[in-house]
Amino acid sequence: MEIIKLENVTKIYGTEDNRLVALDHVNVTIDKGESVAVVGPSGCGKSTMLHIIGGVDSPTEGNVYIEGKDITCLKDEEMSIFRRRKIGFVFQAYHLIPVLTVEENMQMPILLDHRKPDREYTDYVLEMLGLKDRRKSLPSQLSGGQQQRVAIARALANRPTILLADEPTGALDSKSGEEVMALLQRSVKELNQTLVLITHNVDLARETDRIIRLSDGRIKDN
Fold first, then answer.
1. Residue pair 58/52 in contact by the 8 Å Cβ criterion
2. Which CATH number belongs to the domain containing residue 207 in this structure?
3. Residue 111's domain spans which residues?
4. What would the pLDDT profile of 71-114 be if each residue is shown by its tens digit?
5. Can you tell me the distance from the alpha carbon of 216 to that of 191, in angstroms, rounded to the nearest whole number?
6. Which of 94, 106, 135, 197 could make an S-S bridge to 153, C-beta 3.0–4.6 Å?
7. Burial level of 80, CB count in 10 A (0-12/13-18/19+)?
8. Ramachandran region, residue 129 (left: φ > 0; alpha: ψ -120 to 50; beta: rest)
9. Total domains present in the chain
10. What are phi and psi of 84, to 5 degrees?
């Protein structure tokens, strides 16, 4: 069942002499429950594509459908609600709040959505990510791999339909990177999510169901 659809999506930055075409009439469909890696050289449009899927950026032309709904028509407040409830973001930089514990960092998106955290679900995610015994620890007391796990827990807090990961293992050693990738895959399977992953690591890309190759803003292989 199709969950993500990009239809003739073009993204242009700047004007005239400073015009940069980041995406050039991209057409992509991704099914529910699928894990997809987006690969390509730096500057090919990978992050732009991810941000457009997540509603962080909007296309210059074209349409983006999530679960059949055209999100390019949403107003700012509607888009904010959509992002909080449908999308989980995991980035290379952890962006954890240093004065908050593991559990508090995880629950921040729920509180921002004016909802009460589900204790049972919180325990489940922390257990799955191997963080249950560190729930009261501060980020400074964790290794890089553990901090990235907290970032994943935060992304999972609102039970998102789609998980978007932009180079989530880029700052980690190979062992920690493999563990994080395994956890992302486990989350997709156990929580019935869809994963879109940007990575330069070919080995990690091969662990997904499908690889989308971008070059100069265009799909070369899908």
1. yes
2. 3.40.50.300
3. 2-221
4. 999 999 999 989 988 999 998 888 999 999 999 999 998 888 88
5. 34
6. 106
7. middle
8. alpha
9. 1
10. -65, -35
